[in-house]
Each structure stands twice: as C-alpha cells, then as structure tokens.
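Justification of computing resources. Each target in the renewal requires a structure prediction run like the one illustrated here; the chain below, 1307 residues long, is used simply to show the kind of job we budget for.
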Amino acid sequence: MGLAQCLAAAFLFLLLLGLTAAQRVVTVQEGPLYRTEGSHVTLWCKVSGYQGPAEQNFQWSIYLPSAPEREVQIVSTVDPSFPYAVYTQRVRGRGIFVERLQGDAVLLHITELQERDAGQYECHTPNTDERYFGSYSAKMNLSGVALAQRQVTVQEGPLYRTEGSHITLWCKVSGYQGPAEQNFQWSIYLPSAPEREVQIVSTVDPSFPYAIYTQRVRGRGIFVERLQGDAVLLHITELQERDAGQYECHTPNTDERYFGSYSAKMNLVVIPDSLRVTAIPQTLNKVEHDSLELKCEVSKSTVQHSHVSIAWFRQRGGEAPVEIISLSRDFVLRAGSAYAQRQATGDVRLDKVGETTSKLTIYNLHPSDQGEFYCEAAEWIQDPDDSWYAMTRKRSQGTIVNVQATDKEFSVRLETEKRMYIVGEPVEFRCILEAQNVPDRYFSISWAFNSSLIASLGPNAVPVLNNEFAQREALGQLKVAKESDNVFVLKIYRLRLEDSGKYNCRVTEREKTVTGDFIDKESKRPKNIPITVMPLKTSISLEIINNASVVLEGESLRFGCNVRSGFGPQSRLSVTWQLVDKLNRRSEIVRLDREGTLHPGPAYAERSSYGGIQVEQVRPGSFTLEIFNSVKADEGHYECRVAEWTRTLDGEWQMVGERHMSTPVSITALEAGFAVTAISRTPGVTYNESFDLQCIIKPHYPSWVPVSVTWRFQPAGSTEFHDLVTFTRDGGVQWGDRAAAFRTRTAIEKAESSNNVRLSISRASDTEAGKYQCVAELWRKNYNSSWTRLADRTSNLLEIRVLRPVTKLQVSKSKRSITLVENRPIPLNCSVKSQTSPDSHFAVLWYVHKPSDADGKLILKTTHSSAFEYGTYAEEEGLRGRLQFERSASGGLFSLTVQRAEVRDSGSYYCHVEEWLLSPNHAWYKLAEEVSGRTEVTVKQPDNRLQVSQTHKNISVLENEWVTLECLVSNRTSPSSQLLVEWSVWRPGRSEKEVVAWLSRQSTLHYGDPAALGELRSRLHLESPAPGLFLLSIQNSTVRDSGAYGCRVEEWLLDPADRWYKRAEDVSGLITLTVKQPDPTLQVDTATANLTVQEKESFPLDCSILSRSSPESHFAVTWYNLRAKEAASHAEEGEEEEEEEEREVVLSVGPDAIFSPEAGRWEGRLRFQRLSAVLFRLTVLQAGGADTGNYSCRVEEWLVDPNGIWYRLAEEESGMVAVHVQDAGSTLQSVICSNDALFYFVFFYPFPIFGILIITILLVRFKSRNSSKNSEGKNGVPLLWIKEPHLNYSPTCLEPPVLSIHPGTID
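Resulting structure tokens:
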C-alpha cells in the first residue's frame, strides 16, 4: 500500500472515531410530580456519554411559576456558595442536600417540602469534555401540593443479564404515609407458571422466602441493600438460568387508607455468558527503545444487540494495574494517564486487525514498561432507561515483558559558600550535573525555595521565573543562568529576611520525540541547603496598660501600648495585638501596618466588621485597642508587638527589629452562680380553689443582662412538660401553644426590683393538677446583634393535687347461663344499681372470655357520649353486622344482643362500666369503673340426623349389559343442606377400596384415579333423579367391573357466617355386582361320511356349524388329515394288521381370517370357501393316492368383550370324512369290492335311503347356489381369499363375506 493510501485510511479512521464520539446526555426524573406539603421528596439525575473524571458534578436550580424565566440556584456538589440566599439556610441545615448514588448519578433531597418549592427543576452538569457535544442539563416539574398517593417504582425492564453475574435491581416508594423507613418484599413469576407468585426475600420477614430461595437468602447469595428509608437494591450475587422471570417489588401498606400503587413489576431475562477473551501467554525480553506488539481476540455470540469495550493493562508485582489504552463501548479511544502523552505522540497505538482481534503497539519502550500485559473486555447492553450496563467482564492470560535499560544514569550536587547571612548580603547556589555525553542529551533544571518554584530552564536554557521572583529578576536583584553544560547558577544579590529557608534544584532528563516534542524521563534532586538571614537590631521599649484586670462578661476591654524611646523620625512602626489564652494558644487580634492600614486577624475579621474591635493611634508611638461586649473566650494575656522599619538604599522597607509586652485579663462568666428556685404554699387544693407559685432567680444581675423566665406544666399522669407562659428577654409575655385552658384563669407578674416571677391560678380543676416548674434562661447580645443563650436553669418540681368526689357506682354481679342452637340470638344485660350523681354518664365495654384465652376480649364499647367503638374481637370474628345495643330510658340498664349465634360465640360474657362526670372546666373525666357478673353462653350445632340406606344387594348381569347401582339417603339433618356422594368399589383379590367417582356439593362430577379406573371412566354415569336418590350406571359392563360397590355421603351445612362445614357422614350397605360371560352353545356337525374320487380329480371337505353362542361371534376353522400307517411289527398269520393314525394340519383359518402356511404337499392344491356364516368348505385339487385318509375340522368360537378384546369361548370338532383316491386304471367294481363297508353300503341298503339322500343333496345345492351368487365378483367370477385379509374382511363386520381359495392363491 502506498503512502497516500495509508494517509487516506488513517484520516478515514480518525473521522469515524470523531463521528462515533460519545454524546453527553443528562436525564432527570420524569415529571410532573405531585407531592404533599411537609413530605420528604427525592429527585434523581444522571449523566451518560461524558468524558473526563468518573465522578461528575451536579447543580440544581429552580424556575418559580411567578418568574419562569429567572433561574434560582439551590445546591451544588462542588460549590458551597452556589445556593441563593433564599435556600442558603436550608442547604446548611441539611434541609436540602444532594446524595451521590454513584459517580454519574445523584439524588436531590428536600426533607420537608414547602409550598414555595413548586416549580420547574433543572439539573445541570458542568462540562468536562474536550468539546461541547450533547445535552448538559434537563428539567422536570414538581407541581406542588397534592393529595399523597403511594407510588412504587422499580427498575425499568426488560433487563438482559448474563448467567453467573452479580446483578442489582432498584425499587423505591414515594407518596407514602407512616414511618420514613418502608419495608420491601421481592417476588418472582417464573415463565413456567406466570400466574404463580414465588416469594424471594423481604426486609422485615425472615420466613418470607420460599424453600427454593431460602438457602441462597441465608447464604447472602440474595439480599436486599437499603439505600435509604424508601429505596432499596435487590442483589443476586451469582445469577442462575432459573432466575429469569417477572420480578415484583411490593411495599406493605403503612397509609391510613389504600391509595396508589403498592407494587411494581419488571422482567429479567438471563442469557448465556458468551464473551471470550483470549491472548497467547508468553514471555518477551526487550531492550529499551524497542517496539512491542500484542494481540487479543474478543468474541461474543449474544443474540441481543450489545457493544464490547476493550482495554489493555500493565501490572507489576502486587501493584495496582495501570491502564495503557482502551476502546470504549462507544468506540472512543482513550489512553491511561500514565500513557496519555505517549499516545498523543504516536508511541502507543490500538488497532483492529480483524473481525475479533485488536493489536496493541508500543514504540520506544521504556524500562518502566516492564511487567505483565493483559487485555480486558466487557460486554455492554443498553437498558430500557437508555443507560449502558456491563453484563460481563473478562481478562485474558498475561504476557510477561522484560525491558532492559541502557546506561543513562546521572547525579546532581548543590553547593553554596555558607549558611548564615545578614540582610542585604548576596548568595550564590551552584547546581552541578554529573553524567556521560551531556551535550548529546537533554536536561531541564528547576530551582525551588521551601518547595515553591523559583524558576525553571528547559533544554533551550531559557529561564522562566514565577511572578514574585520575576519582579526581583527584572530589578536586577536575582539571576538564573546556565554557566556550562554541567553547571547551573542561582544568584540573589540582596538577601531579605523572608529569604531564609531551604533551597534546592531538580534535574530532569527529557527525550525528544519524532514530532519534536519533549517527554519527561528520569528526575533527580540533591539534599536541601538551608540558609538563615539575620535581621538588623532595634532599641525601642514598650509600656502596656489596661482599664481593669477583672471584668464581667459583656463589659468592654481597653488597652494602651506606648513606645517610650528608641526610634527615629525616619523609622516607621507596625503594631500587632495578639491574645494568648490559658492553653498558651496564640491568635492574632488585629494588625496595624507601617502604612497605617488595619488588618483584622482571621478569627476576629467578622467581629471587627461589626465594630466590635477598634484600634487607634492616639499620637506617634501611642496605640489603643478596645474590645466591646467581651466574652469568656476573650480571657487571657493581651500582647502588643511593635516592629520598627527602615527604608534601604534601593527604596524597599526593611524590618530592623521587634519588641513585645503583655498584660493579663480575667473575665467573670455571666452564668457563674446562676440558679432558680420554685416555691408554693398550697400544694393540695380541691375543685374551684386558687393557688400561687413563685419563681426566685439568683444572683441579681445589672439591667443590661437579659433573663427570660418560663413556667412549665406536666399534667398529672403524663411524662411530658409543656410551656404555659414565658416572660421574654425583652420584657414581653408569650403564652404556650397548649395554654389556652389556663389563660382565662391565670395571672402572671414579674417583680420590678428582681427577676422573680409569680404565677396565680384560680378555679382549679383536674386540668391544673400536676407538676409545675420554672425555667430561667440567661442571654447575651452578640456583636452582630444576634442573641446567644449562655445558660438555662430549671427549678425544683412543685406538685399540685386537685381532688375529685368519692364514687358510689355499683353494677349487678349476678351470674346466669344460656344454652341455644346456632342462628338464634344471644341476649346479654348489664344493670347499674347505683351512681354517684344524677348527671353521671356511663361508658359500657362488653367482653367475652374464652377458656383458651387468659383475658377477655373486647366486643363493643359505648362511650359516655353514646359513641360506638367495635373491639378487636368483633373485627376478627366478623360480629359487626350481628351486634345490637340498647339502653333503657332510665339509663341504668344496657342490653347487647348477638344475632345469628355461631358455635364459636360460646363463652363467658360480661360488661365493664365506667362512670363519667363533668369537671369544673367542662371536661369529662372518668370517676370510677366496675365489672358485672358473667353470663355463660353455650351455642350448639343441630343434631345429626343423616341416614343412608344400609340394604345389602347382590346383582348378576352378563357382559355388555347396563347395570344401575342405587344410593338412597333416607333422612338428613336439614332440607337446605348439601350432600357429597362418593362411590367406591372393593374388587376381588384386593384389600383396599378404589374410589370410582363422586358428586360434589355443587353437583360437579369427579372421577377417581385414572390409572385405577382405566376405561371404566368412559362407561360411568352418575345422576340424581330425585332428592336423596343417587344412581351410578355402568354401561357395557365387563367381568373386570365385578366387585362390592358402596357409597359414602357427607352432609354439609351453612353456618351463620355463610360458611359451609361438614356436619355428618354415613355409608351405605354394599352392592355385590357379578358380571358373567355368555354360556357356550357351539355345536358342529359330527356325522361321518365316505368319499371315493379318481386320481387328479377334486374332492370337497365341508365344515358345518349347527349352532353358535352369539350372532356376533367369529370362528377359527382348522382341517386335519388322519392317515393310516403300518405298525412296526406284524401279528401272526391269520390275525388282522394293526394300524396307527397320523394327524396332519391341512389348512387353518383364524377368527381374523388369517391363513396358516400350507404344508409342502398341499401347496397350490387348496381352495377355501365360506359358503355362509356357518358353513366352510375346503376343496382339495389334483387328488393323488397320498391324499387317501380320514379328514375332520375343528371349530373355535371367538367373542369380543366390551373393551374390544377377543377371547375364545368354545371349541368343537366335526365327524370324520373317509376319502379314498383311486388310481386312473381302477374300475368301479374293483373299488367297491376292495372296501367291505362300501360293498355292503351299495348292495344291501334299500333304495328309499338313496332317495332321501338325493333330496337332501338337492336342497343343499340350491342353498349354496344362492350364497355363491352373493359371493361372485365382477362378471360372475368368485372373489379370492388372499393373504391380506384386511382388504376384504374385518372381524368387526356383521356379515362375513363368502371366501374361496383357487389353485395358486396361497403362497
């Protein structure tokens, strides 16, 4: 690639970096917000896409509705003087403050919202970027006072996080009432069960987590971090795949009523961690100024859109890693602080050399570059709030780089002639550099005085001095120069007193880059050289006087300082007043310089600005100091320091010497001996009497010392004091907030000659009974017209007792018992037999005591003002709608009725009566209380009258028939009750019953265990044709349905609270069901026959079924050949030869019309025909001599059960057919004569028998002709029965087809 192409590519890369530079975005909490006056408000603000330091600064302002164009500054994170005056006090008092959540996010807190805080708030971030790019502020509206509405906010979703990472989810609540610290509960709705809540963790309940999360919560794998009272963070330290789902943050209610949202949800998606960071681990040995190239491969396979950031680090030993260079997720290239200068000169580069590979290049290596190099990558995803989140972060294996340094050591020495000098003398410092090849190297020199820079010389040897020393250099008083390549000189021609101190020089070697710029390398400096500059001496003397050595706090202090001799007319004096306290701490009060300018000390600047300190020069050499309104801290030794100054030849002022003298001052504190005492002569009074209280203060202070006196009161039975009345420090009277009841009956008086205060109260009542106390406060007016409370003293307690009248209250103590059935009313009475006054009012509290409770529980309370209050027991048990309270006209009888009694209402009831009277100040008070006798109440449930028929039955049916089982409820407890009927069966051979089905109280049909019922479930039918009668029907019954059936009945009643409960249960007698299969009636024709055929002819073998067990039955037919074979041995001559029969299967046809394979000698010679449903014929073709023998057929009858399963019912075998096959040469005569039975049959049976036989054959032929017509196919050709029977025949067909077999049709 040519140079032009390289430059073009570099320009394009830089252009792309500029186009993709990060854009600053400031985001503020979305408005408008509605908050209540007095509530605590938080507003969040955050910034993204910024450059510069990680910790950004924030400034909050407001635009008020009255002046929407005018910015009013509130608070800043960096500038304490930022707030305007209207907000300064609230910011200093932490009423408004900023909480930093992280470097780029803050919360603005307004702890007590005021009406004037409504307006448009602006959050501004000062610029730290290289250029302005983006938004630097954002605004939102806070719309002032509104009804508080709870609002729960959770982090916006969906969030994508990688498996195994540590995640946090924030949740906060606003607009709530109650305690400032709210509780939070986190739950999850898993994708597999989106409607089911799974509880995770709670801030208040340790037992809140479900079992799946308990171990992780206990092990701190999941925990909640509280950011503040109304904001928390949910931490999941190691995210798992099963943690994906919808998270819900819930806040339990602490408000007076439900208003707003109490929970919020967000979705969390857990994705695999696919980030891979790889680099080749190796060890490289380099020499200083060599180049270094390292590669790192970063890949990911995340489906979601994400960005990747890459950074290279160097680490040595246990030191912290040093960032070299990084490419941010926004494709912004940044170098670490240690490598920024080298990156700017091109010595550090980061290039992308492939789709997933980046290359780090460092030119001109330094020895400081030695260490382990590794790259770190992070995968970032953008959350719904537009912020970027690092899902995972990984680092590669390291590469060890060793850099061998070249020999470029140098040393530095600093020299001067002596260490002690007099003002005006010259001094010269020489900085000597010892190194090799100095002319070929670049060095810079810097001179320092007491660690402050004097001047610096670069490689070009041009000195640069700071402001102060530059002026002295311009006046020729100082010189900085390079004497040779190795020697540098600092020379001061006229020393001053302030030139005393430590001097040093620093030499730094610099390296020139290819661009001509210099970069710093090694730096060295020698030890400091201290010098001392001695001043000229003076001969002045001082005298100091003061107005008093002991004063009372608040009085003025006056001092005089006179210079008696020793200074001439050309000299000038400067005066400094200092205070040395008892701890020997010195502080400067004020300084008057030689020009007559007054300079207050730091600690007295404000006091002096208000005129509290005054300094004068009465005449030359005579100075005065006056301190007004003294305080205890002004006690100590006052010192006057006078310095003499003369002008030098060059026109500058030089201090010749200094003298000082001091005088002690003691200040008596105002609060010394301050005490207060309260007295009274009437500690006990009755209603409407008067009493006096006196507050005596010691000592007696001057009139300018202000004292305030407050009478405080603690009502009887209370632990809290409140202020009644105050004599203020300026002589005014101020009544307390809770003294309204005292003002009309209270007089207060302060003595003129002292600070004693008397309090008089008339028409005493219980309101005035209690403890009284007076509090005196000693005040001082400060120099800035503000007030300081020096001390306060509290007197002894004075208890005033106000007595009440004696009670005469009596309540009836009689006891009684009541027993009733639920739903009936419970009458309760409470009678007052005597009372203290006709004007007495009564409060009645009704209680119930249960045997399981230690104390009674409150049901209802009627106050003395006839107001009703329901107790906790009434609320918990739902009694509010069932209580009825009455009071007799005379007022002494109270009645309580509990309607619709329940069993749980049983217990011991009693009333508690309180007698109330009106006090002299028209306030009701409780005079006495008494408890009545108890009423024992027993509430019972209705008697059980449920009866189910116990009749035992036996039922026997055939398969496929319907059977109905009966369950009769003969009696029940209530006509309105609901019944649950359950049918069960005990099957033969099983010990446990099986639930078949049950009919619920709501008439819903339910079945038993599907595995146990099997197909029976589809044949069940449950109904109730009449009240109390329940029928269970089984369709198409099978043998497996046999068993003992019974029903169980539950009776449910509705209690007074409209809740159903099971009152009774009963079971019926057993019904024994027996299901049988049909009886077999199969009968096959067993008649024997003889048949003679010629060789090569065919002969038929018929199998006729005379009767069948069922019209739906199918048949399996098998033909056998029984042939005679000679015995192994013969008898003697003249005896008959013994024969044995050999049984051979000719053909077998199954009930499903499947044929058996043909034996070898029968192959191709068999033809099968089904002439009718009960007549089967097998024809043997091409008969041969071997076919001679006896033939028979065996028939099996098969039936299908209700489940569609075939079973064999019966089997029968037909009679024998004797077949003789003649050779082709045989004659009829030879055949007949060779067979004795045939001979007799032909010649001796009468001819009528032949006639009957012929007629029978004709009838059979006629029948078979009709059936054969039905079995003919196209063109009258009979259908063939082939090996694929399912094509022509199915066992479920009602009419079997007529089948036939021709030669060659069976394989």
